[in-house]
Amino acid sequence: MKDVYLGMPSFPEAARTATKDERLRANLTRATHTIRDKRAKAVTEIEDWAELVEAGKAIKDHTLRHLDEYLLQLEAKVTEAGGQVHWARDAAEANRIVAGLVKAADGGGDQIREVVKVKSMATQEIGLNEALAAEGVAAYETDLAELIVQLGDDLPSHILVPAIHRNRTEIRDIFRANMARYGRPAPEGLTDAPADLAEAARLHLREKFLRAKVAVSGANFMIAETGTLVVLESEGNGRMCLTLPETLISVVGIEKVIPSFRDLEVFLQLLPRSSTAERMNPYTTMWTGTAAGDGPRTFHLVLLDNGRTDTLADTVGRQALRCIRCSACLNVCPVYERAGGHAYGSAYPGPIGAILSPQLRGTASEIDASLPYASSLCGACFEACPVAIDIPEVLVHLRARVADAEPGHRAERAAMQAATYAMTHPAAYRAAEAAAIKARRLLPPDRKLPLGPAKAWTETRDLPELPKQTFRQWWKENHR
Q: How far is 129 from 74, CA to CA, in rounded Å?
C-alpha cells in the first residue's frame, strides 16, 4: 500500500487525539447511527437475508480457492471483448502502468494533463492521485464525498462516505474557499442547504466531465464468465466517467472477481442494503471491453495484487478478501464511532481496515502493528457483515502474529516460559496450584494479586476470589 498513510501515529496515539474532538464525535455519531438504523430496517425486509449472506460467503470462498483460474478466464474474456489487461504486483507497478497509459492516451495532439475519477478504494490504497501529480497529471475526484475530501486537502475517513467527518457547514466553507483552485468556483451566496451544495458540486464537475479524455475507475465486481466490470453508485458521476471519456482505465484488486452473472444477483441484493440501506442502488453501470460508437474507445484493466496473494496464503486472514466494501462494520463499531477513520492510518478504516491493512502492508510499521488492537472484540462487525467475515477471529489471529514478532519484556518472557512448563508438566501444575492456595491464606482479605508493578493489571479488573481448595483436592475428598 502507498506510504502516504505510513508514518502516521499508531492507532492508540491517533485515537487519543481524535476522541477529544467533540465536533468530530458528534458528526460521526449522527451519521453512523442514521445509516445503522436505516440498514437494520432494510435488512429485515428480506426473509432469507441469512441465506443470502451464506450464499455471498460461499461464492467468495469458492472464488478465492480457484482465484488463478477465474483471473485467467477474466483476462481472456476482457481481451476478447477489445480490452487490454495489465498485471500489477504492487502499488508502485500499478502507478507506473496507469501513468504510462495516461501519457499514451490520445489527447487530440496535446498531452493529457488531467483525468476524472470514479470513487475507488484501490486507487486510494496505492496513492494513485499523488503518483499522477508527480507526473504532471491532475486527478479530479467526481464522487461528491471524495470531491469534498479533495477540495479540503483531506484524507477519506469512511469507506462509503469518505467525508463523514464533515458537517454541511464545513462543506460549504470548503466549497467557498477552494473550488476556484480546481475549476469553476462556488456560486455566490452558497448556503449549507444540501440541495445547494449538491448543485454547486454538479456545476463544478460538469465542465470536467465534458472535456475529460481519460477516466480512472475501480470496480465493485468483475465477472469472469463474460469479462464484465460492474460499478454501483448513487450519484451518476460514475456513469459519466464510464461513458464520456475516450479512454477508461480501471484499477481493481484481484479479489473482486466473481465467476458468473448468476453470482452477481446475490451481491446486488447484499451490497445496497448493507451500505446505503437502499433496496437497490440508483446507478449500476456494467461494461464489457469496448463497443464501436458506445462508450470509451480504449479500455485498460489493471489487476492489482499489492499483498493480496500473501493474504490469500493465510488460512485465517484470507476471509478479509471476501469484503465487498459495504462499510456496515464501520457503522456499528463503537471504536470507529469515537475515534473516526483517520486514526486507522489507512485507506481502509474501521474494523475491516484493522484486519485488511496489516495483511496487505505487513505489521512492521507502528501503525500496522497497532491496528489489530483497535477493537473491543464486541463482535458487532461480524453480525453486520453481509459476507460473514469473522473480524474478531482475524483480529485475535493478527494480535498473535504481532506478539510473536516482538521479543516482549524479559519478565513477560520468563512468566510465559514458566507457565508453559507448568501447563505441560502435570506434577509441576499440581504443585503450583497447592502453593497458590497456601499463599492465599497469607494475603490480607482487602489485597489483590498480583502485587508490585503488576498490580496495575488488577486495579482495573475484577478477578474471582481464589478458592479454598483446588478442584483436584475437592474431588479427592468428595469422590473417594
A: 27
